[in-house]
Amino acid sequence: QVQLVESGGGLVQAGASLRLSCAASGRTFTNYKMGWFRQVPGKEREFVAAINWSGGLTYYADSVKGRFTMSRDNAENTVNLQMNSLKPEDTAVYYCAADGSIGTRFYLVEVGYDYWGQGTQVTVSS
């Protein structure tokens, strides 16, 4: 089992920045690729970003590329999502997820991930 706890959400104005964190506990953190997803009411969970075990490889959704940066600290068992130039359409509940599959492929859908956090709300006002 892997337990994931997100933090850092909040209410900001358009153009501002937020930094989300996800603390992991349980099994060996470096065994997992990590991802961030987001969800608004009535819609499916949407892929945002993913990172490999070392932090040396990342992948982003087109909608956040150039504005969001995902990183991980394996010594602290955390992953972060730095979100800059936030837009109202970034408003969602953001979820951290862990993918225990072997290989370098990043999954862009929920089913590819084994463990999920409870989510943190991000609201961007115009």
The helix fraction, in percent, is under 10%
Count the beta strands: 11
Low-pLDDT stretches: none
User: What's the helix count?
Assistant: 0
**Spatial separation of the terminal alpha carbons:** 40 Å
Main β sheet profile: 7 strands, mixed
H/E element sequence: EEEEEEEEEEE
- Mean pLDDT, nearest integer? 96
Q: How much of the residues is beta strand, in percent?
A: over 45%
Rg calculated over all Cα atoms: 13 Å
Determine the oligomeric state from the structure: single chain
Structural class: mainly beta
Please give a structural write-up.
- By secondary structure, the protein is mainly beta.
- It contains no helices and eleven strands.
- It has strands spanning 2-7, 10-13, 18-26, 33-39, 46-51, 58-60, 68-73, 78-83, 92-99, 115-116, 120-125.
- Strands 2, 4, 5, 6, 9, 10 and 11 form a seven-stranded mixed β-sheet that branches. A four-stranded antiparallel β-sheet has the order 1-3-8-7, with no helix packed on it.
- A hairpin with a 6-residue loop joins strand 4 (33-39) and strand 5.
- It is globular, with a radius of gyration of 13 Å.
- The model has no long low-confidence stretch (mean pLDDT 96).
